[in-house]
């Protein structure tokens, strides 16, 4: 384990209060005599203690444990036929980026080697405002309807009575929502334990819309493939590291960059036309499914490179806020129900966690363009508040105007408005393909063993529901075969009857 130390900085001349006043004594409070009480006039003490009492901000509800770094995105292939966004303007163009990696369910102090999806969020500081691609290391997710997101997250967190991690909650939710099966299978495969952040792929996961200069739209998925090669931890190594080095992934990323070994990822898109989407055998906006690479091949675009560690973790990583609604012209949302839900949820949680003016924080500020709007004031307004410009629209004075060329593309919506149940939208076919065609025999065995080891912590009736689910179909027998050594006879009988 590499020892970390402070970076060499120019030594300041004077120790000061937050207001900049020099401090003469930092070791002793002002008292009435050597044994007397504290005087309220000890402003250096009050300044120090009052700030200390307010150091903590709300923890992220999900993705609390994480690390990140800064670098650039470079365009290596022209995709202007699909997208007019300036970030893809020409081959060779570079754009500053920030990337935050994370686990999902654990708290800020939890281990980053646990079996859990990994967040892989990229902020592009583009010429037309920030673009936030809030992805994961998996191309899919547990659910497809945003209404279920709070309940899903609660099921992965602590029991509200015992405050303990609860396998019953986890497996109860998963077994009651069969659309989870694809992501759960991915999670319990080898890739559920990536060896740090550098050796895993990233995905935008959602379906997005790209628009070219002629305002012709296509649907798109984003992929970023690690150039360090895929490496995963063995379960026993991940468990050991969780106790001996719970910050293993953060340390590995920081050390690699500090030593000049800059990690990189090749950036790709998949493209689907609107006509293809109409004929697609599944809902093309279903976050629990992938698009076949044979039918919709990866198109190379560029590369992501990380070459700078944060100068201060809190300022640049803890306050780093990603919002999927941050899309520059040329990139738009699709009807993906989970994406639509996140368009509201993410900026809403940042306003709670960081404050109304979180976009004025340096790490979140769109510094490559100027912000001109009619928003004013609010707590912690840190800039010039747009000076004396009018704060209403329309107006007759010098103030920003709309630009018609940036109006979003139109799209048709024909069905009746209602609440549509998608629980049974073929939750099996792609899981079977993943299990039988993507994984080899040894990987299939490890998946079953990993799943069995976790499932045994749940109550028997939940075990029965999971292994006997009709959604497993022919996969059930394979799962059950590897589950038998640790399963009860009642579970075996249920599986065999299925």
Automatic annotation (TrEMBL):
<dbReference type="InterPro" id="IPR018028">
    <property type="entry name" value="Catalase"/>
</dbReference>
<dbReference type="GO" id="GO:0005782">
    <property type="term" value="C:peroxisomal matrix"/>
</dbReference>
<feature type="active site">
    <location>
        <position position="136"/>
    </location>
</feature>
<dbReference type="InterPro" id="IPR024708">
    <property type="entry name" value="Catalase_AS"/>
</dbReference>
<dbReference type="GO" id="GO:0046872">
    <property type="term" value="F:metal ion binding"/>
</dbReference>
<dbReference type="Pfam" id="PF00199">
    <property type="entry name" value="Catalase"/>
</dbReference>
<dbReference type="InterPro" id="IPR020835">
    <property type="entry name" value="Catalase_sf"/>
</dbReference>
<keyword id="KW-0376">Hydrogen peroxide</keyword>
<dbReference type="InterPro" id="IPR024711">
    <property type="entry name" value="Catalase_clade1/3"/>
</dbReference>
<keyword id="KW-0408">Iron</keyword>
<feature type="active site">
    <location>
        <position position="63"/>
    </location>
</feature>
<feature type="domain" description="Catalase core">
    <location>
        <begin position="16"/>
        <end position="401"/>
    </location>
</feature>
<comment type="similarity">
    <text>Belongs to the catalase family.</text>
</comment>
<dbReference type="InterPro" id="IPR002226">
    <property type="entry name" value="Catalase_haem_BS"/>
</dbReference>
<dbReference type="GO" id="GO:0042542">
    <property type="term" value="P:response to hydrogen peroxide"/>
</dbReference>
<comment type="function">
    <text>Catalyzes the degradation of hydrogen peroxide (H(2)O(2)) generated by peroxisomal oxidases to water and oxygen, thereby protecting cells from the toxic effects of hydrogen peroxide.</text>
</comment>
<dbReference type="GO" id="GO:0020037">
    <property type="term" value="F:heme binding"/>
</dbReference>
<keyword id="KW-0575">Peroxidase</keyword>
<dbReference type="Pfam" id="PF06628">
    <property type="entry name" value="Catalase-rel"/>
</dbReference>
<dbReference type="InterPro" id="IPR010582">
    <property type="entry name" value="Catalase_immune_responsive"/>
</dbReference>
<dbReference type="GO" id="GO:0005739">
    <property type="term" value="C:mitochondrion"/>
</dbReference>
<keyword id="KW-0576">Peroxisome</keyword>
<keyword id="KW-0349">Heme</keyword>
<protein>
    <recommendedName>
        <fullName>Catalase</fullName>
        <ecNumber>1.11.1.6</ecNumber>
    </recommendedName>
</protein>
<keyword id="KW-0560">Oxidoreductase</keyword>
<dbReference type="InterPro" id="IPR040333">
    <property type="entry name" value="Catalase_3"/>
</dbReference>
<feature type="binding site" description="axial binding residue">
    <location>
        <position position="346"/>
    </location>
    <ligand>
        <name>heme</name>
    </ligand>
</feature>
<dbReference type="GO" id="GO:0004096">
    <property type="term" value="F:catalase activity"/>
</dbReference>
<keyword id="KW-0479">Metal-binding</keyword>
<dbReference type="GO" id="GO:0042744">
    <property type="term" value="P:hydrogen peroxide catabolic process"/>
</dbReference>
<dbReference type="InterPro" id="IPR011614">
    <property type="entry name" value="Catalase_core"/>
</dbReference>
């Amino acid at each position: 384990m590499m020892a970390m130390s402070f970076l060499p900085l120019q030594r300041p001349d004077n120790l000061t209060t937050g207001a900049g006043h020099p401090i003469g004594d930092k070791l002793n409070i002002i008292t009435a005599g050597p044994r007397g009480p504290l005087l309220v006039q000890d402003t250096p003490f009050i300044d120090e203690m009052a700030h200390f009492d307010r150091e903590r901000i709300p923890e992220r509800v999900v993705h609390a444990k994480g690390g990140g770094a800064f670098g650039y995105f470079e365009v290596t292939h022209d995709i202007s036929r699909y997208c007019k966004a300036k970030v893809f303007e020409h081959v060779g163009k570079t754009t500053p980026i920030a990337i935050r990696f994370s686990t999902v369910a654990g708290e800020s102090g939890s281990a980053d080697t646990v079996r859990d999806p990994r967040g892989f969020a990229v902020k592009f500081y583009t010429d037309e405002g920030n673009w936030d691609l809030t992805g994961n290391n998996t191309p899919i997710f547990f659910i497809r309807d945003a209404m279920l997101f709070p309940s899903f997250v609660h099921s992965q967190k602590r029991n509200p009575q015992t405050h303990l991690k609860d396998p019953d909650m986890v497996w109860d939710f998963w077994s009651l929502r069969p659309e989870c099966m694809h992501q759960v299978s991915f999670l319990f495969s080898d890739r559920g334990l990536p060896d740090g952040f550098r050796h895993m792929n990233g995905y935008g996961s959602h379906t997005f819309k790209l628009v070219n200069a002629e305002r012709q739209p296509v649907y798109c998925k984003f992929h970023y493939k690690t150039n360090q090669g895929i490496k995963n931890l063995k379960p026993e190594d991940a468990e050991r590291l969780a106790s001996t080095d719970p910050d293993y992934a953060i340390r590995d990323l920081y050390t690699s960059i500090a030593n000049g070994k800059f990690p990189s990822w090749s950036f790709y898109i998949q493209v689907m036309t609107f006509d293809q989407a109409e004929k697609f055998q599944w809902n093309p906006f279903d976050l629990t499914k992938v698009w076949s690479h044979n039918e919709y091949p990866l198109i190379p675009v560029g590369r992501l490179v990380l070459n700078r560690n944060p100068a201060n973790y809190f300022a640049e990583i803890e306050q780093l806020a990603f919002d999927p609604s941050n899309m520059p012209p040329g990139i738009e949302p699709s009807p993906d129900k989970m994406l639509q839900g996140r368009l509201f949820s993410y900026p809403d949680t940042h306003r709670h966690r960081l404050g109304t003016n979180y976009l004025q924080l340096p790490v979140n500020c769109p510094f490559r363009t100027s912000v001109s709007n009619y928003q004013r004031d609010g707590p912690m307004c840190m800039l010039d508040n747009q000076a004396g410009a009018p704060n209403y629209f329309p107006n007759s004075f010098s103030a920003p105007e709309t630009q018609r060329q940036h109006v979003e593309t139109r799209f048709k919506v024909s069905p009746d408005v209602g609440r549509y149940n998608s629980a049974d939208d073929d939750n099996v076919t792609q899981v079977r393909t993943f299990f039988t065609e993507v994984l080899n025999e040894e990987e299939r065995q490890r998946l079953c063993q990993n799943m069995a080891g976790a499932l045994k912590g749940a109550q028997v009736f939940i075990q029965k529901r999971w292994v006997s689910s009709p959604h497993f179909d022919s996969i059930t027998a394979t799962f059950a075969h590897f589950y038998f050594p640790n399963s009860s006879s009642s579970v075996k009988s249920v599986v065999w009857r299925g």
